[in-house]
Amino acid sequence: MKPQILAVLSALTLAASANVAVAGGDAAAGKVKAASCAGCHGPAGISAAPNFPNLAGQKDAYLIKQLKAFKDGTRKDPMMSGMAAPLSDADIANLAAYFSSLK
Fold first, then answer.
1. pLDDT for position 89
2. pLDDT tier at 103 (50, 70, 90 boundaries)?
3. CB under 8 Å to 45, separation ≥6 — which residues?
4. CATH number among 1.10.10.10, 3.40.50.720, 1.10.760.10, 2.115.10.20, domain 3-101
5. How far is CA 79 from the centre of its chain?
6. Angle 86-89-95 (CA atoms, 0-180°, nearest 5)?
7. Dist. CA 98–CA 38, nearest whole Å
8. Left (φ > 0), alpha (ψ -120 to 50) or beta: where does 2 sit?
9. Which of 96, 103, 102 lies closest to 26, judged by CA?
10. Which residues lie below 8 Å from residue 100, measured CB to CB, with a gap of 6+?
11. Burial of 56 (0-12, 13-18, 19+ CB in 10 A)
12. pLDDT of 22-66, one tens digit each?
C-alpha cells in the first residue's frame, strides 16, 4: 500500500477513535449537571439573552473543545472559566452529550 494511503487510513482511524471517545458521554447525567448552566444558557440550552450562546444542538466535539479550553485557560472568560474549572472530563463529556442531544 502507498504511504499516502496509509497516512489517510491512519488519520481516519484516529478520527474515528476520537469520535467514539467524544460520543461516550451520558446525556442523562449531563442534564443533571446542566442545571447550573440554565441561568445563562436557558433550561433547554436556548438562551434568552443575546450575549449568551445557545448550546442546544451544538456538536458534542465542539462543546467538549470549548469547555476544555475554558478549563485550561486557553479560552478566557471570567464566568465560564470559573464554571469549567471544577468539571471532570466525564462531566464535560456528559454535558456535551446532553446539549448536543437537544434541538
1. 97
2. confident
3. 34, 37, 54, 55, 56, 57, 99, 102
4. 1.10.760.10
5. 17
6. 85
7. 13
8. beta
9. 96
10. 57, 58, 59, 60, 63
11. middle
12. 458 999 999 999 999 999 999 999 999 999 999 999 999 999 999
User: 10 Å Cβ neighbour count for 45?
Assistant: 22
Percent of the chain with pLDDT over 70: 78
- DSSP helix/strand/coil, 3: helix
CB 93 within 8 A of CB 25: yes
* Across 4-13, 33-42, 46-55, 87-96, least confident range: 4-13
pLDDT of 81 over the 90 cut: yes
Number of H helices, E strands in the chain: 6, 0
Domain-wise residue ranges, the chain: 3-101
Amino acid letter for position 6:
L
